[in-house]
Amino acid sequence: MRARRNKVKRRATGLCVRLLDRVTLQVRSGGEIVARVDGFALNLGKVSAAAADRAQELRSGVPLSSFASHKTSAEKQLEQLVRRLAARGLIEYRLAGQAPHKAPHIGDHIIIEPQLPDYWPRMQKLRQTDRLVLSRFAYLRRRAGEMVLESPRAPALFRIRNPEIAALLVALSTPQQVRALRRQTNFPGIELLALLIDSHVLFKVGTNDEGLRATEGGGDLVVWDFHDLLFHARSTEGRHANPAGGIYPYVGVIDSPPAVRPAWPGEKIDLCNLSEASTAADSAAAKLLRERHSVRNFDDRRPITLAELARFLDATARVGSIEKIPLDPARPGGPMLAHTMRPYPSAGASYELELYIAIDKCEGLPRGFYHYDAAAHALTLIPAHRHWCEALLKSAQSAMGEASVPQVLITVAARFGRMSWKYSSIAYALILKDVGVLLQTFYLMATDMGLGGCAIGTANIDLFAKMTGLEFHREGPVGQFALGRAAEAPASS
Fold first, then answer.
1. Span of 343-357, 456-470, 478-492 with lowest mean pLDDT
2. Residue 436: C-alpha distances to residues 183, 359, 481 (Å)
3. CA dist list (Å): 114 to 21, 56, 300
4. Which SS3 state, helix, strand or coil, does residue 246 take?
5. Is 112 helix (H, G, I), strand (E, B) or coil?
6. How far is residue 221 from each of residues 6, 11, 140, 326, measured CA to CA in Å?
7. Can you tell me whether residue 132 is helix, strand or coil?
């Protein structure tokens, strides 16, 4: 009688989806599935018993190819569950080869971490004659004990566990045909190339194209320097999965720097008597500067009016005039440049900033999302989904730490090409300086009008792209300002 052999369990090969290590799934009575992560429980809906059994396979990995045909109801339900998990950032993908279960990670070429909640891997079709080259925005860095391949344009990052992939990336610094890559020893597979193209880490070029700057992404992308696009994508919300905001990451690591810098040693010139003598004769501008403060709580029983909003925008952002000047005054008949005059200063008179206004409560103006036409002094309604507008307002509410959303939320967006067309290397830095100037202008005008305002440090660039239909590198948010009628301070007892 032949002895029974124990089956050796092997991990699934190819592109697979699996739960993050910190996530567990529980099945409750009635087929309700709950994900537990970091002490929180998330209800993911109900599935059949068969789908619940398949869901446990997400711990080790389920091939994405199993979702392609939906041969059974359980597979269809499993895909729906995986998409719900993906929307909450609770899964990752791996590109793996054959490896025995006793060495579970040896076969993982790549671990793919989604950076956008709606990321779903797609395999771009490739021909043998396609020429591929590495994006100028792609970069490889060390994170803990792994190498990570990233790009500010990519919806996912790639944790590289096969050192031979690094050699492939070096080769792709110049265009390479797919057939030549496949002939390389230890070629990691066509799936990897397809995934990197889908994430804009690689792109296709023509026969005589060497993948230079003008090739990648068209005119809206050509004006970006590498460091500027990376800083824009990583210093805002929406296109990365890193912690952001006031999370005090270095508590217990280093002491907080002092609120006031220690004085320099040496002889001091006392200015107090000089300034105190002139305080009584302060100008209106000086008084506004002293009275300016952030207001985060608004009186929804007496919302701001459309007339007040019109006055506010007129005084802070309206185009006063348009002038044309020669690019080179020494060359008569040469190209002319158009510049606008507005109430605040702008680097190189670029005036690249645009205002988008989300309305929750404004007397005389319906709730919605509007663009402010600074030349016409008019508001244009943008037909963005209601839940996106709600998400924008809720995000501002969360940033301010208040119980209700602001009456008016002004999103300051930049037309990046307007600034980058003139300036190189310092373009994004100049944009942020312009934002600071404009926010102070907002503060002073709100104070003068008896309104309340609060600058908000970040915005979701992916949400803005969905609301406007504009690619994040063409025009995107660089600041926000909450505006409304300040709530009265509670009477002291």
1. 478-492
2. 54, 23, 11
3. 15, 21, 39
4. coil
5. strand
6. 56, 41, 21, 26
7. strand
Where in the chain is CATH 3.40.109.10?
Answer: 286-484
Q: Is the whole model's pTM more than 0.85, yes or no?
A: yes
Q: Looking at the structure, give the CATH architecture of the domain made up of residues 14-96.
A: Alpha-Beta Complex (3.90)
User: What are 280's two structure tokens?
Assistant: 């009584």
Using alpha carbons, select from 229, 198, 278, 304 the residue that is nearest to residue 461.
229
Task: Supply the angle between the helices 427-448 and 284-291 in degrees, to the nearest 10.
Answer: 100
**CA 470/CA 417 separation, integer angstroms:** 13
Nearest to 446 by CA among 250, 302, 315: 315
For residue 358, list its beta bridge partners.
369, 409
Listed in sequence order, the residues at least 6 apart from 47 whose beta carbon sits closer than 8 Å to its beta carbon are 31, 33, 55, 74, 77, 78, 81
Q: Using the CB atoms, write b or e for 274-313: b if 16+ within 10 Å.
A: eeeeeeeeeeeeeebeeeeeebbbbeeeebbeeebbbebb
3 state DSSP class of 415? strand
- Tell me 286's DSSP state: H
Name every residue whose Cβ is closer than 8 Å to that of residue 375 and which is 6 or more positions away in sequence.
319, 322, 340
- C-alpha atoms less than 13 angstroms from C-alpha of 424 in its C-beta half-sphere: 1
pLDDT in tens, 357-398: 999 999 999 999 999 999 999 999 999 999 999 999 999 999
Please say whether the beta carbons of 196 and 123 come within 8 A.
Answer: no
- Locate CATH 3.90.930.60 in the chain: 14-96
Provide DSSP, 162-220: -THHHHHHHHTTS-EEHHHHHTSTT---HHHHHHHHHTTSEEEE-TT----GGGSS-HH
Contact 172, 178 (CB under 8 A): no
How far, in Å, CA of 161 to CA of 168, rounded? 13
CATH assignment of 286-484, among 3.30.1640.10, 3.40.190.10, 3.40.50.10380, 3.40.109.10: 3.40.109.10
Q: Which pLDDT value is given to residue 328?
A: 81
Residue 241 has pLDDT above 70, yes or no: yes
Task: Identify the H or E element spanning 285.
Answer: helix 284-291
The residue whose two tokens read 């003068």 is 448
Letter for the amino acid at 267? E
CATH number of 122-216: 3.90.930
Q: At what angle do helices 427-448 and 306-316 cross, to 10 degrees?
A: 130
* pLDDT tens, residue by residue, 64-101: 888 877 678 888 899 999 999 998 889 999 997 544 34
Q: What are 271-318's pLDDT values in tens digits?
A: 888 876 666 667 888 889 999 999 999 999 999 999 999 999 999 999
